[in-house]
Amino acid sequence: MITDTAGVGKLVTGSRYRERGTPVRAASKPKIVSAYRGGAVFRHSGSVHPMPARRRRWGIRIASTLSALVLTASGVGHTVVAQVADGVSRVDAFGGLRDRPDAGSGLNILLIGTDSRDGLSEEERARYHVGGASCRCADAILLLHVSEDRERVSMVSLPRDSFTTLPEHTLPGTTERHEPHDDKLNSALSHGGPQLMVRAVEDLTRVRIDHYLEVSFVSFMRAVDQLGGVEVCTTEPLRDAYAGLDLPAGTSTLDGPGALAYVRARHLDGASDFGRMQRQQRFLAAFVDRAVSGGVLLNPGKVAAMADTLLDSVRADEGLGTEQLLELAGLMRHFTTSSAEFASVPVADREREMPGLGSTVVWNEEEAARLFTALRDDHPLPRPEPGDSSAEQPHATPAGGEHGTTTADQITC
Fold first, then answer.
1. Residue ranges with strand state E in 20-64
2. According to the model, what pLDDT value does residue 336 have?
3. Which of 215, 297, 335, 357 is most solvent-facing, going by the fewest CB within 10 Å?
4. Residue 200 is part of a domain; what is its CATH number?
5. pLDDT in tens, 146-204
């Protein structure tokens, strides 16, 4: 099972789980519900903490899921991978980009989760609580780095509300030019498509992006229903009327709408986007655990069916083809429990009000520079120094909990 000392939740697998301290046997199948139970405020430590062994394993699995490589990690072979690659819509994410960062060692992939509602009926939009118009924005922004020796994976979450200056760009589908202007990072996708998204991330991080992958959360949540639901657990009630989320504390199995509400909820804790990123990380870990424990990744037929679901709304750069997917899938199969690290960008202010933009996230430039220098130089993410006073400041958010040291057996729900 996966637990969380910060209080957002415990993701549970195995033969038993607890609800309000009461043991319940898994033989009695839990009811699948349409919302998630959990929620509390996360605190954010001052520097990036590599994940402990068990958490590193989940970091690897999360990385493979988001990049669609989880579909190939069972070794189903070139044919299935080729079908996956052929089913991906292609975008020109790098054409015309100028003044890019120098290429470093290793491989960098920009992973984007979008709020697209394309393909949803009116009934489905109501069921998923996504009746409003999509802003065509990035709902999740993650930078995945694979080391040159293919022995380590580092994933960094970039807050969607990060304050930045978007460079000059043309609105997609038009000839309308826009001068550089201040905005939130997630708006780059709607203002200039994948090219502007890549350029904005490169400008902020000075890390050169090698590949681009974009996945619809709606498509991903349909896959949840195909799995038969994903089990999660938390210690406190979690309610967000905007996302359609209202459940008491305890253990439950989320269906697609409940899972979507859980990963989209933004009005249930003071951590805002940071708590949301943590929930996304934990849900993805639970999703992959469900796929693994359910034997999906060992069954080529189930893999193909899952691919059909996920590829409904997946876009990638033209260079991320069959051979690249095969290489990355092979790497995922051979990572050890000590080969992954997962963190968020260190920030100085989580709620900086900016004219015309509202609340934005301002990065801690010095700490962020350390983080991305490590990625560029193909080094492990920087560790906190002993006695570092910044560790008590709300800067970085490791995936493993408030101090990056949570293990699966440390707390119960």
1. 22-25, 32-33
2. 47
3. 357
4. 3.30.420.590
5. 899 888 888 888 999 999 999 988 887 788 888 999 999 999 999 999 999 999 999 99
- Look at the alpha carbons of 122, 126, 130, 133 in this order and tell me if their dihedral is positive or negative: positive
CA distance 131 to 125: 5
Q: Are strands 177-178 and 32-33 parallel, antiparallel or unpaired?
A: unpaired
Q: What is the pLDDT of residues 356-368, one digit of tens each?
A: 999 999 999 999 9
pTM score, two decimals? Answer: 0.71
Burial of 121 (0-12, 13-18, 19+ CB in 10 A): exposed
pLDDT of res. 164? 95
Q: Tell how strand 181-184 and strand 163-166 pair up.
A: antiparallel
Q: Does residue 370 form part of some domain?
A: yes
Is 180 inside a domain boundary?
yes
CA 34 to chain centre: 21
pLDDT tens column, 319-344: 887 777 767 666 655 544 456 677 88
Q: In total, how many domains does the chain have?
A: 1
Token pair, residue 40, equals 């509390």
Closest C-alpha among 305, 306, 304, 260 to residue 279: 260
CA distance 358 to 330: 44
In a domain, 16, yes or no: no
Counting residues of the chain whose pLDDT is more than 90, the rounded percentage is 23
Per-position b or e across 355-390, b if 16+ CB within 10 A of its CB: eeeeebbbbbeebbeebbebbbebeebbebeeeeeb
Q: Please indicate whether residue 377 or residue 6 has the higher confidence score (pLDDT).
A: 377
Range of the domain at 160: 46-217+274-289+299-392
